[in-house]
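Q: Two folds, back to back.
A: First:
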Amino acid sequence: MSGQEDVPPKLVRLAQVSHAFTPAAPVDDASLFADRPNEVFACVQALWQKGLHIALYGERGVGKTSLANVLPRLVKDDRLPYLNGVRVDCNTNDGYRSIWRKVFKALGAFEDGTEFDFEDPEEVRFRLEALEQITLIVLDEFDRIADDGALSLLADTVKTLSDHATSATLMFVGVAESVEHLLGEHESIVRSVRQVHMPRMSQGELGAILDTGFSSVDLAITVPARTRAIRMAEGLPHFAHLLGLHSGQATVQDDRDEVTDVDLDRALSEAVRTHSILSEYQRATQSPQPHHLFEEVLLACAFAPRNELGYFRAADIREPLSMIMQEEMSIPRYQRHLNELSGYSRLTLQKEGEPRHYIYRFRNPLLQPFAKMVGLAKRRINEDLRQRLQTLQEQRSAPTLFDATEPGVPLEPSSGR
């Protein structure tokens, strides 16, 4: 073969589908990020205010790194030469000096061969002021920094940049449920930081991912398949891309132009078989004990009503598990499973609170929708039961589903297996 004209059309279409849906990588095309206008606007608005910085926080998998990728590209524009933006990744080995070496290297500060010793927040401020540009500096995966000294110096950097109204905005991006979790106890800088919470995507936003991706490769999707894919994604763009990729590839393989429920079923099977989270699921559900219910209990947890932070109680699992098992289930019958799922050997659920009042949530949010996909793929539930469980979950989930400190509510039995 000597050119693109020799490539079979089907291979070209499969490649196009792979380009349209990228579950393994953050979005890096600004034109594909129109589905997060509120968060983008909040960050850009903060950029124009001298002395104000940004903390973008939220659970894993909601698209924070995609926004961190795209925002510097939106800032960089040939028509706005006085604006600049860079993004660097933080890691557990980073200290204050290594972070700023990466930042200034990304800004091109070493192009003339000059090296700086970044140990002092004031020195960093002087170097940023010398840029004579409005500069956005995105520190992605900020929550991975383990050096307390580095965190304190970064807090001092925010303070001095704000106090001197320096034209540089720091944007901290990380997994957290609040700014306090992301930035720690540095109360002195909270007033200088714009808090931007990245929630899970709405059904409309997830639908936009599917519609944009399929239309870019001249594919359509039926209404039932689209609705199912949106619900299965659970607000996480990763799964919208994953289901779009595999169902689109299945459709192209059959030389068709419309994605149907059959293609979505094939996408589920492929996702369950090949997903990187499979080993985590297996660690959570495998046991040498006979007649264990780890898969069923984990599936019930995935369908449990929850509050806005993803927490549920032991009692919230009872009805979903009873529907899955097709018999009445009491808390003592699955309490041991909850204890083990939240223990060190499995590390699947995060448990908080006091005895008899514990609350739980998935440590890895991606595992929740994945457990539902496995349940469908293994036929532990059928589509009719999935819809009933999903409806039950959506009707009962609420920001104020429960008060974790509410007295007199026996969420945990005192004994029993």
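A: Second:
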Amino acid sequence: MSYFFNGNECDKDQVLENRNKFLAKFDIDINSCIALWVEHSDKILVADRKSAGISMKDKKYAIRADGLITNQKGLYLFLLIADCLPIILYDPVRGAIGLVHAGWLGVDLEIAKKGVMEMQEKYRCNPSDMVVGIGPCAHKESFIKENPSQKDDPRWQPFMQKTEGELYKVDLVGFTKKQLLDAGVQDKNLFISNVDTAKDKRFFSHTREKDLPIERQGRFACVVGLRGR
């Protein structure tokens, strides 16, 4: 479901109202959610319940990282996104989850693989037990880069297709899938949405809205948590 985010301070009340409406559809209390403020890094943190609620209501308290993990029930991880990859990690054996944001830089830093490694380290998760979902995002046909610096990187070459001039189609989803498989996630436990946000107008897209000021661009939300207390 799409969710509108406006960064203007004057719209703070509207943002809060939108978040409450969105969460109410899933019977989730805003005070049980922790909001990420992405940095396009590979920083992944353990969620701290003390940040629940306040990080959703005031962006000053949003968690500056690109991933959160937790094994606490009743705590929900909240990510705003538009074209980048929202990655949900779940270990049903250990009862642990993670939510990771992977954009152009995050994929290059192999943040998906690092998310699996963090859950191994913190919660003794076995990657072969983990279920991973990649949500709606910009797919290869829509993610076009001009003369990307990684074009000569052997890691990237299977996931770049030159089209015309110095333009390349970049398969962020494909490279992310490889990272997850290399980390030990089983292919049968990997689920990838076929929704291309750059084409599907049900979802906000930075690609489609790139000519708008950043404060007028929309974001949709990805929320994940373990039910219970």
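Q: And?
A: The first strand starts at residue 33 and ends at 37.
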